[in-house]
Amino acid sequence: YQRRVHGRSTVPGVSTLETVHLRIEDMLARAVRQNARFFGTTASRLAPVFFTKSHEWIDVEGTNATLGLTDFAQNELGDVVFVELPDVGSKVAAGESFAAVESVKATSECYSPVDGEVSEQNTALADEPELLNKDPQGAGWLIKMSNVSEVTGLMNKADYEAFCETDEAHH
Fold first, then answer.
1. How do residues 92-129 score in pLDDT, each as one tens digit?
2. Helix (H) or strand (E) holding 107
3. Mean pLDDT, 10 residues at a time, the chain of 171 residues
4. 56: closest CA among 119, 114, 112?
5. Of residues 8, 70, 74, the one with CA closest to residue 40
6. Which of 1, 28, 141, 161 has its CA 20 to 30 A from that of 98?
7. Residue 155 gets which letter from DSSP?
């Protein structure tokens, strides 16, 4: 995309006639930042977010990932009152529990869809576990992992939304 700018420049050293190149990537990045929740991402980029049948989400960037509980899961649990997270440096295996979420209704385990090592935990949840209810795919993320294994067998957003409409999702 190009546009020509005519007239007197208000910036010293800039000619009165110049061509401004706006890269498509910059426009997309700006749109994603402005509409991050619409695109289902917590970052200022459009990233692959995958979902499990046990209602966890994983946002993958290279060999690093952020994991959390889905909006569907937090709605089913009700008001979250406590979150237990693994220590930084802990190894987590695919299919294993990595966190426990306690609500006014029940305690639920969260299961990792990948192997990896915990590189960060969301310490804000210790003082504000309700962040999981307010913003489960944003400020309510659970852990970040490094050296994650390949992501396979997970659902994209459309498939997960369709899954949530089934009876199996409510068990």
1. 999 999 999 999 989 999 999 999 999 999 999 999 99
2. strand 107-111
3. 43 43 41 45 57 95 95 94 97 96 94 97 96 95 95 92 88 68
4. 112
5. 70
6. 161
7. B
Complete DSSP assignment for 15-75: -SSEEEE--HHHHHHHHHHHTTTTTT-SSSS---EEE-TTSEEEEEETTEEEEEE-HHHHH
At 109, is the secondary structure helix, strand, or coil? strand
Which residue is associated with the tokens 């061509």?
A: 19
Number of residues that make up the chain: 171
User: What is the C-alpha separation between 104 and 82, in angstroms, rounded?
Assistant: 9
* Residues near 73 by beta carbon (within 8 Å), at least 6 away in sequence: 55, 56, 108, 136
C-alpha distances out from residue 83 to 1, 8, 136, 159, Å: 48, 58, 13, 28
What does the DSSP 8-state code read for residue 120? E
* CA trace torsion 54, 56, 59, 64 (10° rounding): -90
Residue type, 103: S
Q: Exposed, middle or buried, 12 (CB in 10 Å: 0-12/13-18/19+)?
A: exposed
For 155, how many CA atoms within 13 A lie in the half-sphere containing its CB? 17
